[in-house]
Structures are given as C-alpha cells and as structure tokens.
Design a protein that fits this description.
Largest sheet: 5 strands, mixed
Structural class: alpha/beta
Oligomer: single chain
Number of strands: 14
Strand content: 5-15%
Number of helices: 18
Shape: globular
Radius of gyration: 23 Å
Length: about 525
C-alpha cells in the first residue's frame, strides 16, 4: 500500500530496560531518515509525532515530542550508551505494518496519513483489480477488516517470495504502482488465462481478497496495547523484498550477502551437489529465498559428538517435513562469510575467539581485514544470545532429548555463518527458547547485551490454536488446531493469540526482572 515498496516480511519489536514513553521524541534531533514520500501527497513533517487522544490512564506518562529537548546525534549515542544495558529483539513473522497497524490512531496507515483521512484515490494500491478467468469480468478488491468472527487469529500465508513481491509492486519506470497484490494471488492459483478448475478458481478468489485484509485491536490486543504505550515506527521497510531468511540474516549483518557476491560472483549461480544419496541445490548470496543453512545440512561435514559440547557440535535442522524433505532437490545456502554483529560483539578478543574455529581458513577468509579493525578499538566483548524455539532442549520435549520439532532452521540468521556455527565461543550464545525463560528465572542472563528471541512451529506451553468463530464446523476446528499452533506469528502454521502470548511472556519476564 505504501508508495515506497512495503513488503510482508518478518516484523520485530525491541524492548529495553529504558522504556520509551508514549510519543517519546527519542529520535528527535537526529538527521531525518530517508523514508521518502508518505502515502498520497502528504509529507512527513517530523520524525516523531504524538499519538492522538491519549487515554486518561496514560496521560501522566505521556511526553509530547514537540516539547522535548532536541539533542544531537552525538548526544543521543552518548545517552544510549549510558542508559541502555539490554536490547531484546523479539521476532514475529510475515505480517506487514498495514495489515496489523494500518488503522492504529495517528499512524501513516491505510485510511489516514497520520493526521487526517486520505482518500482512496490518493492511496497507491488502495484499489486492486484482476480479471476473473471464468466470467472475464474485472474484479476490484479494496482493504477490509477481518475480526474474531472470521477466525482472524489463524490465517493462511500469501506469496511473499522475492519474485512475488516484485510482481505485486508493479514497478513502472522506477515507480512502484502497488497494484499487483490481488492479481498475483489470484493468478497464483487460478492461472493467468484459461478456465481453472473449480477448486483453483475458489482458492484464487479467496487469496485475492486475503492479501488486502487487515486486523485491529480485537485480533491482536496485546500488540496494540504495546503500540499505544510506547513508540510505533510507521515508516519502516524491510531490507529485502522477500521472505524470512534474507531479513533474518540482515537483522544481524545489515545485508543479505551483497559484499560476498561482489567478491565471489560465481557463488550467485545455483549449483547441484549430491551427498548421502540426496541432491542439494547450493544457493549463493545475495539471498533472495529461504534456503536452509549450510551448517547442519547434509553438506555440512562437521563431525558431531555425543556430549553435546564444543568443539564439534553440528547445527540442528528442524524435524518437520518442510525442513527435511525426504528427497532432493534440497535448497541450501552457501556458507555466509561477511561481517556481522556477532563478529563485532567479540570486541578485542575476536582474534582469540575465532582462532578456535576448526574451519577457520574458509570461514574467516572474507573477514581477515575486519578482525584487526575490530581489535584496534580495544572494546570489551558484548554479550549476545540467539534464543529460538526448537534449537535446543525445550520444555515440550520428552526424555531429556531435543527433538527440534518446533525449530524453523531457515529463521536462524546466525546459523548461516560458518564463523558463528563452527566457533565454540560464538556458538555457545545460541540456545533454545526455554533457555531464555530459565535464564530469566534464575537471573543467569549475562549482565547486559543484545538478545534475539524467536518462536517456532509449536507453542512453548503446548497449547493449540484458539478458534474464535463459534460457528466454525467441528472438522475445521480440528484441522485448524492440528495445523496452526505455532507461536512466531507466521501465517499458515501459527495462531496469533499464541504468538501474542509468547511475546508477552518475554516482555513480562524482562519488565518484571
């Protein structure tokens, strides 16, 4: 819907012990971000604006950004270093801002520029059209709300592939028209021409509408409550126009492998490799799809051991069929070799830490100049952790054995880097989700640092999907509960109430400690 290309990819929220008050102008005074033109012809007049109609129970905490003291970027950085000891990044999957917060009061959303209503004519992509293959009629689809009466907590996943998103943007002379969403979804099932089968026609019609749906506070009340009390970023765009893996990697490295491709352009060409009776497609960077991590795949020859301790521990892959197909081709990313935050987090000890990588000559070949650069600042290491459901032993596992049943391995950006996956001193920072709650309970989380938290295919508490439409047939309820009980908010296999509950457990654990 936004004139700038807005994609349906992983959203994240960050919570720190320095909580920003409603309407906080924490970013005021910093150079304006390159967010381009907002919807229609309205221009953003300020980096931070006040939420309208602040409820009385929040008024005493409200700070109007217009009245806050302006600080320089240098001052801001100094304040951040002084006051913020922890950063927690909680990932949620594959919902756009417009879909979840497009009707939130005061945001640059679906029907408003943040201060006043905006007409459909001035909202790029508001009207979507496609040609019905059966009737030949032109069908128009506009944004509409889904609520609990339509089981809005459980949704199917629309096409968010790189090629799919490009088709939806419909870029003409360098300007995205944002009008190909419904057309792409309809044709994905019903085809571009010809008479589709009845089931394909019905599915295409449904998905052409689903892609234009949005929800609000009655579907995601926790998320809307957090948004009403803290700071909402309504002009935030994904690094990569595509699915989860590239953006999970970019969260750690600010890119998806462009610098690696510049050094090794040959790696961009997919290569077929056979190992253990399976055929693998080795996908080179920059990443645009969801290949599995090289480390842990059948191409990873790192020896494992039975102790579960370094130095040789193979990375896990999820146990579900989507993660481990019975036969090839099995898409695997080439090992990523460019710099990332976990590398810089090692500080002045980075050389000593990486020296214990048994595959150092290959893993560190492209960061040999980064290592002395990091060392010269003499910075102390920064604690970090990647806590992802299913990576390790979870509370839902039995017999003291990690099943990895809930693990979505292509969501683990850290696992794609050889110097992370193979270096004991860095791999030690990768954990299952239960470990996070255990550390919080035992006060054993490191003193300060950056911590990433992700859910997975199943719920941490072992709960199943919540069906909110009382008229849902029994067979559909059973199918929903069987298919949609994950807690990372990814459409197709999660329930949004379970996903909100997982995020709330993390936030409550942090806020109450």
């Amino acid at each position: 819907m936004r004139r700038l290309r807005k994609t349906c990819v992983a959203l994240s929220m960050a919570a720190s012990l320095l909580q920003l008050p409603v309407g906080s102008a924490a970013l005021a005074g910093t150079p304006p971000q390159d967010v381009g033109q907002s919807r229609g012809s309205a221009q953003q007049t300020s980096d931070v604006t006040a939420q309208p109609n602040v409820p009385q129970n929040l008024a005493s905490y409200f700070i109007d950004p217009a009245g806050e003291k302006q600080v320089s970027q240098k001052q801001l950085i100094s304040l951040l270093k002084k006051h913020i000891k922890y950063v927690f990044v909680i990932f949620n999957e594959n919902h756009s801002f417009d879909h979840e917060y497009g009707t939130f009061p005061g945001v640059n959303g679906i029907y408003s520029d943040g201060s006043k209503p905006r007409s459909a004519a001035n909202t790029p992509g508001f009207n979507q059209t496609y040609t019905d293959n059966v009737s030949g009629a032109t069908v128009t689809v506009q944004p509409f709300r889904l609520g609990p009466g339509q089981n809005s907590s459980v949704m199917d996943s629309i096409d968010h592939s790189n090629t799919g998103m490009i088709a939806k943007y419909d870029v003409v002379n360098g300007v995205p028209q944002m009008d190909g969403y419904s057309k792409r979804e309809y044709q994905r099932f019903a085809g571009a021409s010809g008479t589709p089968a009845a089931a394909a026609q019905e599915e295409g019609t449904q998905f052409a509408r689903l892609v234009m749906s949005h929800v609000d506070c009655d579907t995601i009340p926790f998320f809307w409550q957090y948004a009403s009390r803290f700071t909402v970023f309504d002009n935030i765009f994904a690094t990569e126009d595509g699915p989860s893996t590239p953006n999970a990697v970019a969260m750690l490295a600010g890119q998806m492998g462009q610098t690696q491709w510049v050094k090794h352009p040959y790696s961009n060409a997919s290569q077929s490799v056979s190992s253990g009776g399976l055929t693998y497609t080795l996908a080179g960077p920059p990443l645009t799809g969801d290949p599995q991590p090289f480390w842990g795949s059948g191409l990873d020859l790192t020896p494992g051991n039975n102790s579960g301790k370094p130095p040789y521990v193979r990375q896990p892959l999820g146990a579900r069929g989507a993660e481990l197909p019975a036969s090839g081709p099995y898409s695997v990313s080439a090992s990523l070799t460019f710099a990332s935050l976990p590398l810089t987090f090692q500080g002045k000890k980075v050389g000593d830490v990486l020296a214990k990588d048994p595959n150092y000559s290959e893993d560190a070949a492209d960061i040999e100049m980064d290592i002395p650069y990091i060392q010269k600042f003499g910075s102390q290491p920064v604690n970090w952790g990647w806590f992802q459901e299913g990576y390790g032993l979870e509370a839902t596992d039995t017999g003291g054995v990690a099943s990895h049943n809930s693990y979505v391995s292509h969501h683990n950006g850290a696992q794609y880097f050889g110097y992370i996956s193979n270096t004991p001193g860095i791999t030690a920072s990768m954990h299952g989700l239960t470990d996070f709650f255990t550390d919080m309970t035992n006060n054993s989380l490191p003193a300060g640092g950056v911590f990433y938290i992700r859910g997975g295919y199943t719920d941490q508490k072992g709960k199943t999907a919540v069906v909110t439409d009382s008229n849902t047939p029994a067979d559909e309820i059973a199918a929903i509960k069987a298919a949609k009980s994950g807690d990372d908010d990814h459409p197709s296999y999660t329930d949004r109430q379970l996903s909100e509950a997982m995020a709330a457990r993390v936030i409550n654990a942090v806020a109450s400690n």
